[in-house]
Design goal:
By secondary structure, the protein is of the alpha+beta class. Helices cover 28% and strands 28% of the residues.
Amino acid sequence: MKWTKALIQTLREVPADAEIDSHKLLVRAGLVRKVAGGLYSFMPLGMRTLKKIQQIVREEMDRAGAQEVVMPILQPAELWRTTGRWDAMGPNMFKLKDRAEREYALGPTAEEVFTDFVKGIVSSYRQLPLSIYQIQWKFRDETRPRFGLMRSKEFLMKDAYSFDTDAEGADKSYWNMYHAYERIYKRCGVEAVPVQADGGDMGDSLTHEFHVLADAGEDGIAWCGKCGYAANLERAERALAHVPAVAGATPEALPEEVATPNAKTIEEVAAFMHLPPEAFVKSLVYMADGKPVMVCVPGDRDVNEVKVKRFLGAKSLELAGFDAVLEATGANAGSVGPVNPVSKDLRIIADSSLAGATGRIVGANKDDYHLKNVDLKRDTSIKEEDYADLCIVKAGDVCPHCGGTMEIKRGIEVGQVFKLGTKYTKAFNAVYKNDKLEENVIIMGCYGVGVSRTLQAIIEKKHDKDGIVWPASVAPFQVVIDLLDPSVPEVAAIAESLEAELEAAGIDVIVDDREERPGVKFKDADLIGFPVRVVVGAKGLANGGVEIKRRDEDKSKTRIVKSEEAASAVKAALALG
Ligand code: ATP
Ligand code: MG
């Protein structure tokens, strides 16, 4: 391919809405163009990489025994109503009507369509297990589309679904996909770590997310360097340390009011009372499915709303408004606590680390007052069964598996594998007959790869100050030949024959045949990030040959090889990459 014939447009200026490096580079290297917020067109270079990632995903799905199909993007509302997700998906789902007023969704995912498909086809155990997948555009009306392809309104996803007769088979399908995912990211040249994740409304269901660790990641991950335990912060657990005593507190002392004027947050009250935040109980009032619930955690910790929601078995959870807090406790947020709230039916739940805690300071349910010397068992109505793990893990917490110290890392979720059980198949009554002709519900799993997000996650990990540093497996072109003197026939001929030889070997090559200064060519090559650069110029040839350098090497590593040996030198350079 000749550069002068290719649609390549690199930009010097940084796009105004790009906050992270990979978003800036994606646009500057001419891989995509923004159409509107959360919507992008893929330019030829971006399309080449997108296709290479798709191909890796496809090959590994096929290798894992899954078969490719494709389902419509436009999905009838009835399918979503069957599982109750027409409403449950909320405003995240794009909904529309046809001219006959029939309702549809633009698929944000495809469990319903796939389950309905399989129900219509599978009737006997002989047709199972079955794994099918598609690589299809998905639509989500994200609250905050941002970071380019990382969180867009329209994105390319590979979604696979497994259907099994029994739990053992479903388990096998799950781990089969898990291992296929390990191979996919490895082949894409980027490390993605499997992380235990929260099952959402599927409760304790087994699920792993694959994360590319990067500061730009939107997810927090608890990580134990000692045993390798890794879990999304939504789910991560900690080993409970012993309940620390509060300095200066006498456990027998009874609760006593302390005036804390104008001090609202734990930090403000702690500073006012000259005590550490751990001496306090942080109490927050939530509305869980419309009913108020008080959640108590140690003063130096944050509430994990995912855990609270799961513990309560609630469908919705949000912080209570001003009036609801006052009605439930008798005070405003900032002065509320678990001792004698005015509403006798207010349910109070607390983090396990507070079980047995004494000498604590809590809001007094009276504006601008706190209570000290609180013994949670003696002075509150919190029942034993209402203590549970409700906190977000912090750096320095103790690993629940090995006692090591946990760190917090940031990650980009590039894929997820999920054991669904019978949630969807039950709703659709997707059953099979066993060898005794008895009917059983099919057991399902689902497995997503964010193909377009993976493309950008690779850039986020593989770039330097000059541009992208593509892994050879997914680079738009593996080799760029910078032809410095395109008008000198002998020089152009050498570039031409090297291009032909490399292409014959199955290597993607682009020849920069523009009438541009070398500096411009080198800058663009570095920005786009072709893994190997060959410089062919009259001066170089007179001095012994062509220059070869890998993108991830600095200039001092440039080697000069005779033009006849260039092709094998390029192949060697690529094999190393
Ligand atoms: P997130 O938590 O980031 O919103 P998700 O868990 O809702 O993602 P899944 O339903 O698991 O997403 O979808 C499978 C994969 O699709 C994700 O692992 C991610 O890589 C990708 N993905 C999800 N939402 C988007 C989006 N808005 N833009 C780009 N890729 C996305
Ligand atoms: Mg996910």
